């Protein structure tokens, strides 16, 4: 008879632990699932996974910020190149011999274009 009582008590204890180990929506939402034996044994692994996830998120965010900065700098570089090309063409046009001769003629200077070809001094 005592064996039956002991067996019944162990069966009740097993049922109670099974009921505790049963995963339900209430246990998940309430956070009771974190107190299970599996999660207690795997705590270090779970913390490592969380750290890696945070690192991944931060790395992706930083990469996106750098890509935005690169695009902005590329647009700025194109604008600067066009500006330099415009200024270069303006300078070329102003420094043409015909333009310089016109400018000198309007200022009534005694300067004239040379009729003799240039020569090298050795």
Keywords:
transmembrane helix, Cell division protein FtsL, FtsL-like, 122 residues, 5 helices
Characterise this structure.
The protein has 122 residues and is an all-alpha fold. It has 2 domains: 1-35; 44-104. It is built from 5 helices and no strands. The longest helix has 52 residues, at 43-94. The radius of gyration is 43 Å and the shape is rod-shaped. The protein starts with a helix and ends in a 16-residue tail after the last helix. 0% of the residues are buried. The mean pLDDT is 86.
Which parts are unreliable, with pLDDT below 50 for 5 consecutive residues or more? none
Helix percentage range: over 70%
Strand pairing plus helix content: what structural class? mainly alpha
Distance between the termini: 132 Å
Number of strands: 0
Number of domains: 2
Task: Give the overall form.
Answer: rod-shaped
Radius of gyration over C-alpha positions, nearest whole angstrom: 43 Å
Strand content: under 5%
Please tally the helical runs, counting DSSP H or I stretches of 4 or more residues: 5
Question: Mean of the pLDDT scores?
Answer: 86
What is the element string, with H for helices and E for strands? HHHHH
Oligomeric category: single chain
């Amino acid at each position: 008879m005592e064996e039956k009582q002991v067996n019944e008590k162990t069966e009740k204890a097993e049922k109670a632990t099974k009921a505790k180990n049963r995963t339900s929506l209430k246990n998940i939402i309430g956070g009771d699932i974190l107190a299970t034996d599996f999660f207690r044994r795997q705590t270090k692994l779970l913390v490592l996974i969380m750290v890696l996830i945070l690192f991944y998120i931060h790395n992706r965010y930083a990469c996106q910020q750098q890509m935005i900065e690169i695009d902005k700098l590329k647009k700025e570089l194109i604008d600067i190149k066009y500006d330099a090309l415009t200024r270069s063409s303006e300078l070329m046009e102003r420094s043409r011999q015909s333009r310089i001769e016109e400018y000198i003629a309007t200022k009534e200077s005694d300067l004239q274009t040379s009729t003799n070809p240039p020569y090298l001094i050795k």
